[in-house]
Amino acid sequence: MAGAALTALGLPAGSTAAAADATATAADAHGERPRADGEFRGMWIATVTNRDYPSRPGLTAAAQRAELIALLDLAVRRRMTAVLFQIRPSADALWPSPYEPWAQCLTGVQGRDPGWDPLGTAVTEAHARGLELHAWCNPYRVAGHADPGRLAPGHPVRRHPEWALVHDGRLLYNPGLPEVRRHVQDAMLDAVRRYEVDALHWDDYFYPYPVAGQVIDDDAAFARYGAGFADRAEWRRHNTDLLVSETAARLRRVRPGVAFGISPFGIWRNASTDPAGSVTRSGVQTYDDLYADTRRWVREGWIDYVLPQLYWNIGFPSADYAELVRWWDATVRGTGVRLYLGEALYKVGDPAQPEAWRDPRELARHVELARRHPGVGGHCYFAAREVAKDPLGALTAAVEASG
After folding, report:
1. Can you say whether residue 395 is alpha, beta or left, with left for phi > 0 and alpha for psi between -120 and 50 degrees?
2. Are 305 and 81 in contact (CB under 8 A)?
3. Is the bond preceding 292 in cis, omega lying within 30 degrees of 0?
């Protein structure tokens, strides 16, 4: 996610019977999930590469805590109802996890104890301010480099180098391995088990985005687990579906009141590819390029909310915001899945963006348009740094438009 709509998607494989069990359990439980009242207004707090928090690695525990409290106070001042706090940015953790090391963003050294519990503090202090705390995890990213030797001693990839892939110069967990899928679920659900978070939230990093001249090196995993699939693309989508459906089922057993939400890239398929798709001309389609059948996750009821990253302006030629709101509203209709819209606050005032983003009322128009679609339950703004700056007063105008 970290400042662009184009992020990545990844997955694992496993037993078809287990998948069917997980699917049935998740779907059966879905209708009993509690639903939030009122309009959702969320703020992402990105910790990967210290994007939003902490301001730099190596601050004292007291300074880190003060910055976190300031962000929660900021959310209240800006009339947010929820913060989506990135607690597992790169196969490391902002809580004392038994599965993965302390996050590098805290101290500058992955695995070094920061001397306090950021997630525990975030949950307590968010709730004290009337905010929901959504625990934002990235399932598969391991590192922004390709050297396992730079990971913390004892890191899962140091102990199991066969679990990792290198793609575009970066390490990620291999989505095609059942043991990887189990590990990342264990790591994320540990946070849900130990803390009273309101939701488990994922961004759009699963299988990686296409890179010219590069292929995903999953030949060995496909040879071992891909029998019975029409092609590798179908197998990869199956892996992603298993990650989602299994996590949904396990989450509801671990802590039934916690919601499960995913924030995918905003375009499932173009209508020119599939009549069920949106009237868009996107170069990336999650189903075909990222092996993520985001529409199915909604229709199966595996998730409680979907928060597509609609990081385009109204009238954008290849991905019109208005068309995508219409499409997602139709997609959630009758499913019981809540729909929130991801908003590109980071684009406002940027001279490199289309002219619409230099209009202070672009985001307000998004809110006004969305209110005409009954399935839309609110908006979420990327990200905390821009929420603080409120470029061109656009966030203020958008919040005012929401009433």
Report:
1. alpha
2. no
3. no
Span 319-339, mean pLDDT? Answer: 98
Using only C-alpha atoms, the chain has a radius of gyration, in whole angstroms, of: 20
CA distance 190 to 182: 12
Query: What percentage of residues in the chain have a pLDDT greater than 70?
Result: 91
Asked whether the beta carbons of 84 and 132 are under 8 A apart, the reply is: no
Summarize pLDDT for 164-192 with one digit per residue, the tens.
999 999 999 999 999 999 999 999 999 99
Taking alpha carbons only, the member of 263, 245, 243 closest to residue 201 is 263
Query: How confident is the model at residue 21, as a pLDDT?
Result: 34
Question: How do beta strands 40-45 and 376-381 pair?
Answer: parallel
For tokens 């090391």, what's the residue? 101
- pTM of the shown model: 0.90
pLDDT of residue 26: 34
d(CA 119, CA 48) in angstroms, rounded, equals 15
Q: Strand locations in 245-391, DSSP E?
A: 259-262, 305-306, 338-343, 376-381
Please name the residue ranges forming H helices in 108-147: 118-128
